[in-house]
Specification:
Layout: H1 10-23, H2 31-40, H3 62-71, H4 82-95, H5 98-110, E1 115-118, E2 134-138, E3 141-148, E4 159-165, E5 176-182, E6 188-193, E7 202-213, H6 224-241, H7 250-263, H8 269-296, H9 305-326, H10 354-361, H11 371-382
Parallel strand pairs: 1-4
Antiparallel strand pairs: 2-3, 3-7, 4-5, 6-7
Helix pairs in contact: 1-3, 2-5, 4-5, 4-6, 6-9, 7-8, 7-9, 8-9, 9-10, 9-11
The chain binds flavin-adenine dinucleotide.
Flavin-adenine dinucleotide binds at residues 116-117, 119-120, 125-126, 150-152, 202, 363, 366-367, 369-370, 372-373, 376, 388.
Length: 402
């Protein structure tokens, strides 16, 4: 048990959840009502402060709490509000004022407000700090102009995590500030972008003289990069954590695909060999994540979170490739290529059809930072290898040739 756990261990948390569910039975309590009560009881994010959805416990206990509610039959909200639950909540809790925490965390948790992440731009993806969207102070507001891209779920989001440039005279990392954007504000235009799967899960977002109240800035002026790091570190861990039980997630789909192929006489010894190798890697990755979460305790994830993200991306691609190979000729057929968009209730990401899941998995090594960038982070910040040359790091952003 860690020092930050306030004496609570797994058994205590199990009892708290059990008592809560006795008072709020899953069968007879509407989902949103149950989530609101969960938030008020501090069982939303148990590692957050009391009064803000938590109980001040160790963050390693929050996964257990989530699993206990899932086991009791509560719906899984992660896919529907992945950016809200996986990244925005921790960012608001860490850097927000008490007013901001009180305003945003509860509707985020209940699912009343879906969140999106307005980071990437056409000229700034891996090199996020180069972004050019401007936020210029004007009285009580900032006036925001620019274009964001690849914004997952922006079409259903009520709030956006926005990083914008407030001072172009400073070097790129130092002139940024971080805001919560009202996606329904005038000047915010969302246009769908279609992916390889046929689905438009993400969007372009055009910001034209959009007004953001200064009270919606998270952290101090010029602190945007530091706040963004909290979001990105949590993003990598959230993406990498999917499938937290042995045999769950994509590797479970591969086992099912192998069984079906074996029954159809299509699974040979080499397919079995591929499956076993992938299963072993998936299990090693899962255990690495469990160990990392336990070691992290109450701390915000560090650069080592990139291990989970890198593993998950490369494994998922290999696993779904095997699934498609095991499908035989059916692996080449897609039922429809009609454009569709995730809705508030369907969320982004996963697909039960392995052919679609294969196409979607190709994005895993791009979204949330590419595998090349994860390797750079691990090399430089975890292993201490020499850094890449960074010629623009100390130049004023406005003087960098582009
Ligand atoms: C499905 C999906 C959902 C997404 N959702 C969101 C979202 O909700 N919000 C958001 O803000 N963004 C989102 N993104 C964007 C994502 O974060 C970026 O695509 C990613 O960071 C890469 O940036 P880029 O596309 O500009 O590629 P680039 O940065 O232009 O990279 C191009 C290639 O160069 C390589 N490369 C770049 N720099 C280096 C380097 N220093 N060393 C080695 N190789 C390098 C990259 O690995 C890549 O292969 C999403 C992307 C996808 C695919």
């Amino acid at each position: 048990m860690s020092e930050q756990s306030n004496g609570a261990d797994e058994a205590t948390v199990e009892r708290l959840v059990k008592d809560f569910l006795a008072e709020h039975p899953v069968e007879s309590t509407p989902d949103r009502e149950l989530r609101a009560a969960r938030f008020d009881a501090g069982l939303a994010f148990v590692h957050f402060d009391k009064g803000f959805g938590g109980l001040g416990l160790d963050s390693s206990l929050s996964g257990l709490v989530e699993q206990l509610f899932l086991d009791a039959g509560c719906p899984d909200w992660m896919g529907r509000n992945v950016i809200g639950l996986g990244m925005a909540a921790q960012t608001v809790h860490t850097h927000g004022t008490d007013e901001q925490r009180a305003q945003y965390l509860k509707p985020l948790f209940t699912g009343e407000e879906i969140w999106c992440q307005l980071f990437s731009e056409p000229g700034a993806g891996s090199d996020l700090a180069a972004l050019g969207t401007r936020a210029i102070p004007d009285g009580e507001n900032y006036v925001v102009n620019g274009q964001k891209i690849w914004t997952s779920l922006a079409h259903v989001a009520r709030r956006g995590l926005l990083v914008a440039r407030t001072d172009p005279d400073l070097p790129k990392h130092r002139g940024l500030s971080y805001f919560v954007l009202d996606m329904q504000a005038p000047g915010v235009e969302v246009r769908p972008l279609r992916q390889l799967t046929g689905q438009a899960e993400f969007n372009e977002v055009y910001l034209t003289d959009a007004l953001v109240p200064a009270s919606d800035r998270l952290g101090a002026v010029g602190e945007g990069w530091r706040v963004a790091m909290t979001t990105l570190m949590n993003e990598r861990v959230a993406i990498g954590r999917r499938g937290s039980r042995r045999g769950e997630g994509s590797i479970g789909a591969a086992v099912a695909a192998f069984r079906a192929a074996a029954e159809a006489g299509r699974a040979d010894a080499s397919a079995r060999d591929r499956l076993i190798r992938l299963w072993t890697r998936a299990e090693a990755a899962r255990l690495t994540n469990v160990r990392a979460a336990a070691q992290r305790g109450a701390k915000i994830p560090g650069p080592e979170g990139s291990i989970a993200k890198l593993q998950m991306a490369e494994l998922n691609k290999a696993i779904y490739e095997l699934c498609v190979d095991l499908s035989g000729p059916a692996g080449l057929q897609i039922d429809t290529y009609e454009m569709s968009q995730p809705t508030q209730s369907s969320g982004a990401g996963g697909s039960v059809d392995v052919r679609r899941a294969f196409l979607r998995s190709l994005a895993n090594s791009i979204e949330g930072g590419t595998s090349e960038v994860m390797r750079n982070i691990l090399g430089e910040r975890v292993l201490g290898l020499p850094g890449e040359p960074r010629v623009d790091r100390d130049l004023a952003w406005k003087d960098v040739p582009r």
